[in-house]
Amino acid sequence: MSTNRLLHCALPLMMLFIVTACQKDQKLINVRNASLSRTQQDRQFLIIAKEGVKLDAISESLTQLGVKKFKLKEAIQELGLIRVQTPDPSFPDKARKIADVESVVVDVVMNFRLPTKTFRSDLTYKGGSTQSANAKASAAAVSNPYSFLQWGLQSVKAPEAWQKGYKGNGAKVAVLDGGFLLNEPDIAPNIILSHSFVEGEEVQYHGAAGFSHGSHVAGTIAALDDAYGVVGVAPAAKLILVKVLGDGGNGSFGSIIDGIFYAVNHDANVINMSLGGELPRKTYTDDNGTPDDPSDDYVVEYNKDVKDLIKAINRATLWATLNGTTVVAAAGNDAYNYDQEKRFITYPAAALGVLSISSNGPLGWGINQDTTLYVPSIFTNYGKAFISYGAPGGNYAIPINTTVVNVGGIVNYEYVFDFVFNIGYWDEASDTYYYGWAAGTSMAAPHATAVIALLYGKYPKINPLLVDLILRQSSSDYGAHGKDAYFGNGEVNAGKAVGF
C-alpha cells in the first residue's frame, strides 16, 4: 500500500480524534442535535404498566385517547411494556390517567453506534495466506490465513480453550446491532436466525460507509474455523442477528428492548450489545427533530422520563437474566470515569444484570508482537463500580504512530495493527467482502461474549449468575490488584474459564 494512500486513509481518522475531543463537553447542550442524525419520524413512548397487570385493557384505553396520528407499535406482556407512536405532546399526561399505568416515558432516539475507529484492508475473502516467518500466528488457528493478525485471540487465551475441545458448540449468541452482511462467507453458515426491528430497513446492511459494524462484531464472536479468512473466539457458536439500529447507527431504546425480548424468546444463551447511548442526568427539551415547529416539543424530565426509561430498560435486561440469558454490553468510548461522572451514564451497559465490558489492547504490536496486549484503551469508559470485565478492543496513542511497518506481508501504519482485525467491510456494487481493523469497546464486548459462549457450549444449563462467578474466578488480574476501574473483575480468560 502506498504512503499516499495510507495518509489519505489516516487523515479522516485524525480529524475524528480532534472533533470528538472538541465536542466532548458539549453533549448536554442539546441532546437531540448532539446525538441524533435520523430521518424525521413521529415520537415514540413507552407505557410502563404496574407489575402483573394485563395489557389488553390498557392498550384499548390508549387507542381511545383521541391523540393525533396514534399508532400502537408493540405490547410485551412479560415485561409489562407497551410502545406507541404519536407526535402529540399531550399524550403522556392523558395516558398516565389510565388505570394500571405506572408511568409513561418518551422513547429516546439516539445515534447508538459507538464511535468505532475503522480501517479497511485490501484483503478479500479467500485471499491466500500472507503469513511470513516474522509474524506470530495464533496457536491452533493457523488454518485461517489471516488469524495471525488477530492478537485478540491470544489476549483472551482462545487457543487454550480450543485445545481443550471447546469452540462454542451448541451455544446461541444474539447480536443486537445495526445491519449485517448476511451472505458474508465467514459467518453465513453460523447464522440461524435474523430479524429487523428498524422500520423500513431489512436486516441486510446497505450503509453508505461500507462497514457493517454488526458483522465485525459477529465475526469476532463466531467467524468459522476453516481454511479461509479469520476465526472467531467461539467459531462453532450459532448466531441470531437482530437489527435494532438503522444502518446509520440510529435507534431507540424501545427497539433495543424489543431485540432483547426477541433474543430470549428464541433461546439465545448470551446477548451482545456493542452499542451505547448516554442518558443525561438532567432535564432537556426534545424538539422531535423539528426545531422550527415548537408545537411538538417535549420536555424530557430527568426525575420522571429518564429515570422511568431506565426502569423500562432494567425490566428487559433483568427479565433476560432471570430467564437464563447472559447480557453483555460495551462500556462506551469517551474515556469517562463513571466513578466520578455525574452528568450522564451509558446504557445499556449500566442496566441491571448487564456485564459492562471495557477495552484494552497493545501499543506497538505492529513493531513487536511480544509487547503487552493489556494496556487500557485510550478511549474506554471506566470506573470500578461500572466495569465488569476487560477484553481486547484495540488501542492507539496520541500522537498516533504512523510508522509504516510490515507484519507478515501486510504493510500499513503501525497504529492500525493495534486495532482488532476481522470481517465487516463490503463493496455493495461489486459484492466484494473485505477484512479490516476496528477499535472500540464495540470490539471488546464480543470477545467477552464469545468467551461466555464457550461456557454455554460446555455447560448448556449454566445460568448468568454462574457465568459471572466462573468469569470472576478465571479472569486474569491486570491493572490494580483486585477489582479496578479499567479491568473490573479482570481480563476474560477463555482457557481458564472452560477449565472449571
Task: Describe the 3D structure.
Helices cover 26% and strands 23% of the residues. With 500 residues, the chain is of the alpha/beta class. It folds into two domains: 3-26 and 112-497, Peptidase S8/S53 domain (Rossmann fold, 3-Layer(aba) Sandwich), CATH 3.40.50; 36-107, Ribosomal protein S6/Translation elongation factor EF1B (Alpha-Beta Plaits). Strands 7, 8, 9, 11, 15, 17, 18 and 19 form an eight-stranded mixed β-sheet that branches. Strand 2 (71-76) and strand 3 (81-85) form a beta hairpin. Helix 8 runs parallel beside helix 9.
Judged by helices, strands and strand pairing, the structural class is alpha/beta
Q: Any idea what the radius of gyration is? A: 22 Å
Chain-averaged pLDDT:
88
Largest sheet composition: 8 strands, mixed
Strand content: 15-25%
Could you tell me the number of beta strands? 23
Low-confidence stretches: 1-39, 127-135, 137-141
Q: Please identify, by name, the CATH architecture of the largest domain.
A: 3-Layer(aba) Sandwich
Q: The CATH topology of the largest domain, please?
A: Rossmann fold
- What is the first-to-last residue Cα distance? 46 Å
Give the total of domains: 2
Number of helical elements: 13
CATH class category of the largest domain: Alpha Beta
Q: Per the principal axes of the C-alpha atoms, what is the gross shape?
A: globular
Could you estimate the helical fraction of the residues in percent? 25-40%
CATH superfamily of the largest domain: Peptidase S8/S53 domain
